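Re: the 142-residue chain
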Amino acid sequence: MAVSCDVVLAAESATFGYPEIDVGVIPAIHYAHLPRIVGRHRAFDLLFTGRVFSAAEARELGVVNRVVADAELEAEVARLAAQFAGKSAAVLRMGRAAFMRQIDLDYRRSIASAVDDFCNVATSDEAQEGLRAFVEKRPPKW
C-alpha cells in the first residue's frame, strides 16, 4: 500500500514486503508503481523474492519518506498532517493533480493508447458481430 501513497512515514520497527509470490499470486499494480520508484532490478528483487525488508531499506529505496522512532510515529504524523492542514485545500488539490499529471504523463499516455486500441477494436463490425453472437449463444458469422 505504501507504494501508492504520496507521503509515507514509517516507524523504525516497520517491515515491508511483497509476500504474494509465496502464495502463488502477484501484486500486479506494483509491477507498474514499484519499478518507477526503486528501479527495475530492485523492484524485481522485491517482487519476486518475497523477502521482508526493513523501514531503513525502504527509506533508502525511496519507498518511505521518513523513518522515525516507534514512540514518535504518531506525533510525527500529527505534525505532518498539521503542515498539510495549514495549506489551502484547493491549492493542494490542484497542485497534486498537476504534479501527478507531470510525473505520470508517459504512463497516462500508454493507458490512453490502450483505451483507444480497445475502443477501435470494440467498435469494429467484427467485434460487434462477435458480441451479438455471444449474447445470442451462437457462432459468429464473420
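The mean pLDDT is 88.
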